[in-house]
Amino acid sequence: MDSVEYSEWLAFDAIEPIGSRRDDYNAAMQCALHANMNRKVGAKAYEPLDFMPFMPQETEDEKQARLQKEFEAWARTYNANLKK
Fold first, then answer.
1. Torsion angle in degrees (nearest 10) through CA of 65, 66, 70, 72
2. Is the dihedral of CA 52, 57, 61, 67 positive or negative?
3. CA distance 37 to 57
């Protein structure tokens, strides 16, 4: 594996997590689904991160900045591969 391929995998992992983080998120999605099916009418809907207390909570601005950086990393990698 060369550095370009490694960078591609890092960018992919930033967008679509690989491994146990992905499993944790999938389990949290199931918990949120079950909790939302049984919540009271008018109550705030649960989100998967509500069931992942070990994950750092980020503000909306922090989330947008992170997603922008992830997209830029993906775009750089994708564009570099197109130029080959």
1. 20
2. negative
3. 24
pTM greater than the 0.90 cutoff: no
Domain count within the chain:
1
Pick left, alpha or beta for residue 80 (phi over 0 → left; psi -120 to 50 → alpha; otherwise beta). alpha
Q: Which two tokens stand for residue 31?
A: 């918990």
For the chain, the farthest-separated pair of C-alpha atoms sits apart, in whole angstroms, at 56
**Upper half-sphere CA count for residue 37 (Cβ side, 13 Å):** 6
pLDDT tens for the chain, residues 1 to 84: 888 888 888 888 877 777 777 788 889 999 999 999 999 999 999 998 889 887 777 788 988 998 898 888 888 887 766 655
Q: Which has the closest alpha carbon to 11: 69, 81, 82, 84?
A: 69
Q: Which structural domain range is residue 19 located in?
A: 3-82
Residue with tokens 């079950």: 34
